[in-house]
Amino acid sequence: MGSCWSCLYRDPIRDNHLTKFKVINVDDEGNELGSGIMELTQTELILHTRKRDAIRWPYLCLRRYGYDSNLFSFESGRRCQTGQGIFAFKCSRAEEIFNLLQELMQCNSINVVEESMMMSRSGHTPEMDMSRTPQTPT
């Protein structure tokens, strides 16, 4: 799993905003790495943290995404600002992030196969059998 920062971020945003979500970045063992605000725009996911510039993942560069209970995760491609990797975020509104992202992808005619993440007993997120490359209509 990718780590996005090394410090905690506290933002006064209430956790009922339509496109912004309080998240905690976690590693593949579920250890908390830091917190921030995940924003979904028309074209990209943006992670806002206090000590770093915003981290951006364009939807066209996402390979797959999913959620399970309070965990939202996605795989980014090598053209993303972070390079390729799997990123996981604990969020009480993980399903809402997933649904909004799915809606935005459909509005932008971006096809990525998505499904709910399944967690193993160790807290590990297993590989999903999903498309590796976003498909855009021809």
Automatic annotation (TrEMBL):
Q: List the InterPro entries.
A: Docking_Protein_DOK, FRS2_PTB, IRS_PTB, PH-like_dom_sf
Quick one: where is this thing mainly located? membrane
- List locations, semicolon-separated: Membrane
**Where does the IRS-type PTB domain start and stop, copy by copy?**
13-115
- Record key words, sorted: Lipoprotein, Membrane, Myristate, Phosphoprotein, Receptor
Q: Name one Pfam family in it.
A: IRS
Q: What is this protein called?
A: Fibroblast growth factor receptor substrate 3
